[in-house]
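Recall from the previous chapter that SMILES is a line notation for molecules. Here it describes guanosine-5'-triphosphate.
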Amino acid sequence: MNNNNHIAKKIAEQGSIEAYLHSQKNKSLLRFLTCGSVDDGKSTLIGRLLHDTQHIYEDQLSLLHKDSKRLGTQGEKLDFALLVDGLQAEREQGITIDVAYRYFATNQRQFIIADTPGHEQYTRNMVTGASNSDLAILLIDARKGMLDQTRRHSFISTLLGICNLVIAVNKMDLVKYDQSVFNQIKQEYLTFSKQLPYHSNLDIKFVPLSALGGDNVVHPAVSMSWYSGPTLLDILETVVVVNTVEQQQVRFPVQYVNRPNLDFRGYSGTLASGTLKVGQHIKVLPSNIDSTISRIVTFDGEQTEARTGEAVTLVLTDAVDISRGDLIVDYDTVLHPVQYAQVNVVWMTEKLLVAGQNYDIKIAGKKTSVRIDNVKYQIDINTLKPRTADNLHMNSIGMLELEFDEPMILEKYSTNPVTGGMIFIDRLTNVTVGAGLVQQTVQEIHRPSNIYSQFELELNALLRRYFPHWGTRDLLGGKS
Ligand SMILES: Nc1nc2c(ncn2[C@@H]2O[C@H](COP(=O)(O)OP(=O)(O)OP(=O)(O)O)[C@@H](O)[C@H]2O)c(=O)[nH]1
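With both inputs in hand, we obtain:
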């Protein structure tokens, strides 16, 4: 059955189009990404998932029949990779590609898949895909076992806070569906995974499959009777995703001050976490000015409440001075601005990252600059252990010590991905060159005292002693 018939059947089951749409809307949503090395079978797997869950339109299916026959990549069979490799041509032409998002739904759930290419230089897209996902499917070619890219993508996924990993050992048909091959890869991965960030919170599942033949993707494989676990779709339909963001404290980065006329002044943005209500007492950081929400305006009209992820415009009872990049939080939230932070970085450009460089950064809607004070270490992708490094090259992951141009409201990435996640932008080319995740904000930093003159140090001490309300930073590293 193709997608058209499939949907028609579902509508008939529900009784009306309205009832069908309503049932779709109330299903939980799982966002996942597929990653792994080049040619591991990501596109084939996604094509197979869409096909076997009847999410391919009639015209797509006949085109797929035609293309598979014309190219003959799979003999007489369908080449599912062709279904999702629409970007292939762009790839071959070397055009920058982005993550391809695809949507499908089953009776249990709705899914959004981020398909990220496996080539080494495409780590950038993988990071983008992972930052919006609840679960990562890591494909491993059964013939090749674990590769650097498997380790790198596992590390990045977990660093970005994904705690559901599915290790899909693909192309089992090419190893004669041998259980020992699967077991060996599973064992190797389990040993490796002990080094992954937040290891104790990880839920790792293993499935042996053949994306090409459809074994254990949607339907259980007869060829692998030794495997009694769930199929990949079973896992996707039942995995429990804990969304803690909604319960977290309010973080509303102001993206835009909306002032269409003298009578209206609103602050637009997407609510990164928590909920906001009309009448709620709030505070604006870094200024610490407080006010109350008088209206919540959206594209579809006014509402009394805003939930995590909603794009809204807030109107306040007072005419306060708020600019783009400010952060609206609950009135009783205490967050101190910091000038330094230790940040995990995934470097994505050929130009080496070295200490002393300056970059523009964007964090929670705010744009400012940083200086790389120090490359603390690089992560060895095989052992996931830190090793000393003076620089970071493309695709490497490391820890930096940063100094911001101005005091910043930051949090650990693990506390809040919006106030703890940043991108690095090259000042000349305006290209995104890295992704950073705050590991630790640093209030105190110990600089060698001899970079300041005795007079500067004495003046600094006097200012801090007699004018504490100026918030002067301690040149020797004390709290501001
Ligand atoms: N025998 C066999 N071949 C497979 C299987 N899955 C994928 N392939 C083949 O492996 C090759 C690569 O598959 P793709 O789906 O294009 O791989 P990919 O990971 O999407 O590759 P990129 O998009 O280039 O990163 C194709 O020739 C597929 O037909 C499988 O389970 N068994």
